[in-house]
Amino acid sequence: xxxxxxxxxxxxxxxxxxxxxxxxxxxxxxxxxKLYSQSYMASYSSELVAQMPMxxxxxxxxxxxxxxxxWIDSLDPSDTDYIAVVCDQSDKTTWVSDxxxxxxxxxxxxxxxxxxxxxxxxxxxxxxxx
Length: 130
Known about the structure:
- The protein has 130 residues and is mostly helical.
- The chain contains five helices and two strands.
- It has a two-stranded antiparallel sheet.
- The longest helix has 42 residues, at 9-50.
- The termini are far apart.
- The mean pLDDT is 79.
């Protein structure tokens, strides 16, 4: 009668192993899903930032921003919290933001990869990320 209430050792080991595998797989799936979501949001945000000039142009064309120059002049450009660089096609720096100037970043454009269309993290020779 005790045989019916106590499973054999092999069955207990098999059930325990399956439970552990299922638990680890579920935890790993949750971590991968969270990382994928963060990566997706970062990618979407960088694409959105890259499209901001087009958004302003479309708002101007739709008449929501009556005078773009007046609107731009009303903004305070000294209150920036970003580092930005504008490069020409020959990898020469044509403009740097105030934060870039304060950080003494020079010749950043030559470190850019070819055909870059979105904001990207760049590592300088001294391994400082910008």
